[in-house]
Amino acid sequence: MTHAHPHKMLSKTLLLIAGLCINTWACASASETKLVSQKVEQLRQAMIDGNGKVLKELSSPLLSYGHSGGYIEDQQAFIEKIASGKSDFVTMELADQTINISADVALVRHNLNADIKDGGVPNKIHLGVLLVWQKQAGEWRLLARQAFKYPPQAQ
């Protein structure tokens, strides 16, 4: 009967532990990415519905909501504008979304295509958006949003 050398057993055990840690991290990261994706979808739907209650639940009290035109709203102004219908998203589609998570912060980028009525005036918008989500008390909350206009395409 041969006995494995203690150092070889330790090396194999450490490799197994390292592999499990990497797999667990990847699984945790994938599940957090899915949660953030679900929050983005809830935000999209709440903006179409004008649901102030859900918008408040999804956003941080410290929200900095930046528009493509350069002006910035806090949480209260953002919610009031959407819930009152002053800014009415008739449709909103998100495309080419990426989500990157670092600890308790998630960076979400996507293209936003929407039919909107701003002050009752219909408009079509196509914007790039960066959302910053932060895990606060165990829940992902929108901390910041910055929309931007794409430069004109070369003809």
Structural write-up:
With 155 residues, this protein is an alpha+beta fold. The chain has one domain (6-149): Nuclear Transport Factor 2, Chain: A (Roll), CATH 3.10.450. The protein has helices at residues 6-49, 52-58, 75-83; strands at 59-66, 72-73, 87-102, 105-118, 121-136, 139-149. The protein has a 6-stranded mixed β-sheet with strand order 2-1-6-5-4-3. α1 runs antiparallel to α2. The longest helix has 44 residues, at 6-49.
Pick out its properties:
single chain; 155 residues; alpha+beta; Nuclear Transport Factor 2, Chain: A; six-stranded mixed β-sheet; 6 strands; 43% strand
What's the Cα radius of gyration? 22 Å
> Within the CATH hierarchy, at the fold level, what is the topology?
Nuclear Transport Factor 2, Chain: A
Order of helices and strands: HHEEHEEEE
Record field, number of beta strands? 6
Strand coverage percent: 35-45%
Which strand order does the major sheet show? 2-1-6-5-4-3
Cα separation of the termini: 78 Å
